[in-house]
Design goal:
This protein is mostly helical. The protein is built from 3 helices and 2 strands, in the order αββαα.
Length: 93
């Protein structure tokens, strides 16, 4: 299946415009919530938030299971990981 790409530019505010033809083809509407995630090979994947909610539910269940087995606060874990990441990044400079 052939893929056609249209080049768009990212604004200084991080915004991009999805061309009208593509919005119509995908049935996207003004104000519709889109879920954004990183794909493989530097891809940016956008999907209607309603469709992506199944993946979110699976992630939440995984997080709940992690908390139950490790008895550790997820927010504290996030802060620890971010701190280690900042230290690692500072060492690369």
């Amino acid at each position: 299946m052939a893929r056609h790409a249209t080049v768009v530019r990212l604004s200084s505010k991080g915004q991009l415009v999805i061309p009208a033809r593509l919005r119509r083809k995908l049935g996207l509407t003004t104000g519709q919530a889109l879920a954004v995630r990183a794909g493989t090979h530097r891809e940016i994947v956008l999907s209607p938030a309603e469709e992506d909610s199944r993946g979110l539910e699976a992630m939440l269940e995984q997080a709940r299971s992690w908390v139950a087995t490790r008895r550790r606060d997820l927010v504290a874990e996030l802060h620890d990981r971010r701190r280690r990441e900042r230290i690692r990044e500072a060492g690369k400079r």
